[in-house]
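Q: I'm teaching a short session on how sequence maps to structure, and I want students to see two examples side by side rather than one. Could you give me a first protein with its sequence written out and its structure tokens following it? Keep the formatting plain so it prints cleanly on a handout.
A: Of course. Example one:
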Amino acid sequence: MTEREQKLIFDHWLKDYRSLLFKVVRSYAFTADDQEDLFQDIIIQVWRSVPNYRKESAVSTWLYRVSLNTAIKWMKKERKHQDGRQSMEHVAYVLKESVDEPDERLTWLYEEIGKLNEIDRSITLLLLDGFSYKEMSNIIGITESNVGVKINRIKKYLITKSEKYDHYGV
């Protein structure tokens, strides 16, 4: 694959699957600095992965696998290096999606997803994007039945949390 072909594919993937990447970033990184770092790591990994894509799965499945694995590795690395950070709030606009007003329910959901462990967080994102149990098991590397059990537990957890959440500001 030539570098030009790689760039065309990469640009196409970023254009079509940007929201997928933002979901992963928002679910694993919570400050603007961390979101920027993770987004950059994911983009680099996606660039490197283009030549390895063999069309054995959907592009979205491939990108989820790459981005989730990158996010999980990034989290482990970040836990070791929490000290000595400076704020970069002045560049937070780089990671903002083009949404006029943030939906507080969506913000709440991402906060709750962020409280889940790495595997449950990954499963939740894949579930929200409509992946089948089989696709999820292939991406994450666990059995389909384990995916089903985890989904039921995640749903119960989120339902319990949502009952305590004041959706309407009342």
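Q: Perfect. Now a second example for contrast.
A: Example two:
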Amino acid sequence: MSEQIKLILEQTKSHMQKSVVYMEAELHKIRAGKASPAMVDSLRVDYYGSSTPISQVATVSAPEPRTLTIQPFEKSMIGPIERSITEANLGFNPQNDGVIIRINIPMLTEDRRKQLVKQCKEIAEETKVTVRNTRRENLESLKKLTKEGVSEDEVKSGEGEIQKITDQIIAQLDQLLGKKEEEILKI
């Protein structure tokens, strides 16, 4: 197999692995029953006029399975943090005692569980589309190699390898989705 084809295969695998990492991170943000600091990772807080990730203005921890605590580095940030949690519409009701913000995580209802599973499936489908687009782009790159003098047999072999990589990655994504669904639906 030519070096050009090997390079394309490596790029394909690398891009697709990044999609798996992305999906893992996105699924981790969706709560499945117990509190996790990742649930508020996407929140941004107005910090002296600039939108800043919550992790840069406060310490977020989960001391108990159903409680998140957010301790701002500066007391003046309690209001903006509380406001951003409320505006994010995450279904949480933050309580602040002047020093720390506590969020009690309510039990998931059956409807909310179904919504979360649907959200997970949407993330999985978006990720699969990205993987398929990567496959398509790299297959096109392989086909261009025939014009540059690489034999058709080598290109066909490369196309087969790209399909194997794609199938493996899609199987990984399905496995991740299955685990998350099971986690969400477990009572």
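Q: What should students look for in example two?
A: Point them to this: Residues 3-29+109-185 form a domain with the Topoisomerase I; Chain A, domain 4 fold (CATH 1.10.132.20). Also worth mentioning: The radius of gyration is 22 Å.
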